[in-house]
Amino acid sequence: xxxxxxxxxxxxxxxxxxxxxxxxxxxxxxxxxxxxxxxxxxxxxxxxxxxxxxxxxxxxxxxxxxxxxxxxxxxxxxxxxxxxxxxxxxxxxxxxxxxxxxxxxxxxxx
Length: 110
Fold this sequence. Notes:
By secondary structure, the chain is mainly alpha-helical.
């Protein structure tokens, strides 16, 4: 997925503004809680969908990650539980926006 080429600058500006808001503590604790719950639920249910499990497993196999896949999922779940808003803010400070993907060609009717 991507954005329309005409929206490149506005999209880049919105992303940068949202990162600044997050770093400056303008994101509610409730939003962080919801994001953590969503992520935890998402990782918790990988086993429920053979296609999702296969996709995750294939990614780890293709890139030759040398670890147990179940341990990886359990570590992700632990990480999601333990991460704090401050951890996320510190991480956000390290992000650099170097790509905003947009679609080229075609028309709005396609």
